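Thought: the user asked what Transcriptional regulator MraZ looks like in 3D. I have the sequence; next I should run the structure tool and report back without guessing.
Action: structure_tool
Action Input:
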Amino acid sequence: MFIGQYDHHLEEKGRLSIPKKFRSQLEAGAVISQGLDGCLFLYPRAAWEKLIAKLGELPLTQTDARSFTRSLSFGASEVEIDRLGRILLPEYLRKFASIMGDCVIAGAVERIEIWDKSKFTKYTQDINSRAEEIAEKLSGSGI
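Observation:
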């Protein structure tokens, strides 16, 4: 389980230090991909494989299913954590998420999200201002 948020800085060569608290869950491998809302998703390999299996069950005839599957898989890359606890963010993913310097690494339960710091601040201000409204909409979901 991934929870919490950590401020980090992307190194000039595109390396990003993963919080120590998250590293052990990524030791068996990890996959980083384009995410939603302008961030990157970082999954442990096993969680990524489960997600891809579920996406593979979606009807190939549905345009949205094809588009979403493509968005995640076209923009994905396997990553390894080096001995210093860093991963290399591919340049195309850095551009996708506008991550050039300060960033936030946030736990999102089954995955890690990597955000440009200014985007993250704006996004969290928005969802925090609507927290009650969002909770009410989800109340029928058993949460």
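Thought: the tool returned a structure. Summarizing for the user.
Final Answer: Structure for Transcriptional regulator MraZ predicted. The first strand starts at residue 5 and ends at 9. The chain has a mean pLDDT of 93.
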